Amino acid sequence: MDQLLLRKLTPAVIGVLVRRGVDFATAEDAVQEALIQAALTWPDRQPADPKGWLVTVAWRKVLDARRSALLENFPYGALTPAQLQTFLAEYAPITEQRSGPYLQYDMFTAWYGIYRDLDTFDLRENERLGPSVSLRAGLSAPALGADFLTYPLSGTIGWAAGPAGAFFRASITGSTRLRAGTAIDQIFQGKLYLASPLWRRLFRLVLAGEADAARADTQRTIFFLGGDSGLRGYAIGDLQGTSMVIAHAELRSAPLAVRSQRIGALLFYDIGDAAPSFGSMRIRSDTGIGLRWLIPQLNSSVLRVDWAVPLENGTVTPAGFPGRATAGFQPFGRFLDSRMTT
After folding, report:
1. What whole-number distance in Å separates Cα of residue 285 and Cα of residue 226?
2. Per the count of CB atoms within 10 A, which of 2, 121, 142, 151 is most buried?
3. Crossing angle, helix 24-41 and helix 50-68, to 10 degrees?
4. Model confidence pLDDT, tens digit, residues 97-122
5. Contact 187, 167 (CB under 8 A)
6. Over the stretch 211-260, which tens digit does the pLDDT of each residue have?
7. Is 146 helix (H, G, I), strand (E, B) or coil?
8. C-alpha closest to that of 130 among 155, 154, 113
9. Which long-range contacts (CB under 8 A, 24 or more apart) does 199-202 make?
10. pLDDT tens sequence across 187-203
11. What are the boundaries of each domain within the chain?
12. SS3 at position 278
């Protein structure tokens, strides 16, 4: 067995595990176990791809350690050990304690526009206008109680404007953590929102879009679409992945006053998908109608009732009628947070 080869491959194999979200200490332990197994098996037959063999064995050691943390009496159903390992590899975040200081810088302009039916449906809303920047840098270190050394970094840049009764906002956000020269927990998000002026005091057009991605993420962030999270004609959580694109268009009526309450209607069209990558997406869409009912004495958010028909097949949702209905108290002007961390 080539000891020099093993010493040369060890840092590379540890790096592969770290990029998959394994903490450094656990990666070292797993690789050491893989090296022991190599010492026992390679003298008889050395694999054609030594590095791939070590990565595979070390990754199995990591999964075995995670599986040992599962509750013995928990009803996991008919899942086999292999299926449980696959589930843990895809969805289980690493166990980690973070602790450390950070510095944050925020810049914005103290300009505001007054609107009435973007989110709250005829209640006064003050929207900040102009450019905005938020930057944050931190240190998470074992000396301060963290499990390992990282440098968290994040930033957001945005712009909002309100010409002639309209409202526009765009923003880009990114965050990561630097660990041993590797960027982990990479999260990216872009948002766009446009509301037209109220036409003849009857209608307003609202366009909104969002794109999200998570890469090398130790927390196993998954984006879900379906139901209230963006595609209203699809079952809750029908579409999921580490990349997401969602957009919608709504033609809303002006609120109709009925005593202290406000009632309105809308037509809408949703389009988007969530998948493991942007390249693997199959865009789905739906269209439908909705009702909005504001009860100020009960909630500043509207009661929304939507009925939508999916236009393409989803993972579990067939295209066409009868469609799906959703209801609940929530702002409808902006996208809900469709990111779910498992």
Report:
1. 11
2. 121
3. 120
4. 888 999 999 999 999 988 877 777 77
5. no
6. 999 998 888 888 999 987 789 999 988 999 999 999 999 999 988 888 88
7. coil
8. 113
9. 201/254, 202/253, 202/254
10. 999 999 999 998 888 99
11. 3-91, 102-341
12. helix
Q: Which residues lie closer than 8 Å to 58 by C-beta, 6 or more apart?
A: 13, 17, 27, 30, 31, 33, 34
Positive or negative, the CA dihedral 318, 320, 326, 330 is: positive
Q: Is 146 exposed, middle or buried (0-12, 13-18, 19+ CB in 10 A)?
A: middle
pLDDT at 74 (0 to 100): 56
Rounded Cα distance between 330 and 110, Å, is 27
What pTM does this model have? 0.74
Contact 270, 231 (CB under 8 A): yes
pLDDT of 285-309, one tens digit each?
A: 999 999 988 888 777 778 889 999 9
What stretches of 20-161 show up as alpha helix (H) in DSSP? Answer: 24-41, 50-68, 81-91
- Given a contact cutoff of 8 angstroms between Cβ atoms, the answer to whether 281 and 275 are in contact is yes
Smallest CA-to-CA distance from 312 within 228, 197, 231, 194 is with: 231
Please give the full DSSP string across 221-276, using - where no structure is assigned.
Answer: EEEEESGGGS-TTS-TT-EEESEEEEEEEEEEEPPEEETTEEEEEEEEEEEEEEES
Residues 6+ apart with CB under 8 A from 47: 53
74: phi then psi, degrees, rounded to nearest 5: -75, 135
Helix (H) or strand (E) run with residue 308 in it: strand 303-310
